[in-house]
Amino acid sequence: MTKRVLVVEDNELNLKLFCDLLRAHDFAVEPVRDGREAVERARAFVPDLVVMDIQMPHVTGYELILEMKADETLRHIPVMAVTAYAGREDEERLRAAGANAYVSKPITLARFMTAVNELI
């Protein structure tokens, strides 16, 4: 069965890159450009993984991770945080919120796919 990945990313180039890369590896992908739609779209799409940008307008990926992990129907879904933040404190804070993996930008394609495959 095809694995499903919800990609929450406000930057169009990054969103296209992540979605194209995942599709090339035979994943079903649901892109979300506006973080305010992420939780509702996750409930509708029922992904096997969420790739979550952290720094977005309106709502942060950190806040979305907390909200998803507090939701009974979504808390089991692994979340991979993708962020330009590179500090150790940032990674610890995201993992404490419920992120299962942390990949810093700029990403390498191989590292991105390794992280995805480790979570699914």
Shape: globular
Q: Give the termini separation.
A: 12 Å
Low-confidence stretches: none
So how many helices? 5
The helical percent reads 40-55%
What is the chain-wise order of helices and strands?
A: EHEHEHEHEH
Topology overview:
Blueprint: E1 4-8, H1 12-24, E2 28-32, H2 38-45, E3 49-53, H3 61-70, E4 79-83, H4 88-97, E5 101-104, H5 109-119
Parallel strand pairs: 1-2, 1-3, 3-4, 4-5
Short recap of the structure:
The protein is α/β, with parallel strands linked by helices and 120 residues long. It has helices at residues 12-24, 38-45, 61-70, 88-97, 109-119; strands at 4-8, 28-32, 49-53, 79-83, 101-104.
Can you describe what's shown?
The two termini are 12 Å apart. The longest helix has 13 residues. The chain is α/β, with parallel strands linked by helices and 120 residues long. A 5-stranded parallel sheet has the order 2-1-3-4-5, with helices on both faces.
Task: Supply database-style keywords.
single chain; 120 residues; alpha/beta; five-stranded parallel sheet; 5 helices; 20% strand
